[in-house]
Every structure is written in structure tokens, then in C-alpha cells.
Amino acid sequence: MLRVYLSGNLTLDGPGGSRAGPDFPGRQGRELFAFLVIRRSAPVSRSDVAQALWGEGLPASWDTAL
Prior knowledge:
The protein is α+β, with helices and mostly antiparallel strands. Helices cover 39% and strands 17% of the residues.
């Protein structure tokens, strides 16, 4: 069983051990992972991901950045 903890430090616990926040690449990597875990029951569009990462301040190259 895999357990994902989103409060405090982002942590994954599973049969292979534990991974914590520093194992994830940067703040946006952690935020994106948490967003996808929360929305795991349905497909997520690229525009939804962009909105989650940058909000109203989308960079001009957001599509390439994803």
C-alpha cells in the first residue's frame, strides 16, 4: 500500500521505503504532485495544471514549461 501525506512535509510511504519533500524537485514539483494526487479520480487538462502552478500569472511559455 502506498500512502501519501500532503500536510506538513510531502511524504510518500510504501513497501520500498519513505520519500520526503526534499526528494521531490523544487517547490513547483511538490505542488504539482500534490495537485495531481488530489485530482487523481479524473483526467486533468494541461490548462488545469498551468492554472494550479501559476494561477493568473501564466508565463508566456507556459505550454513549453509543462
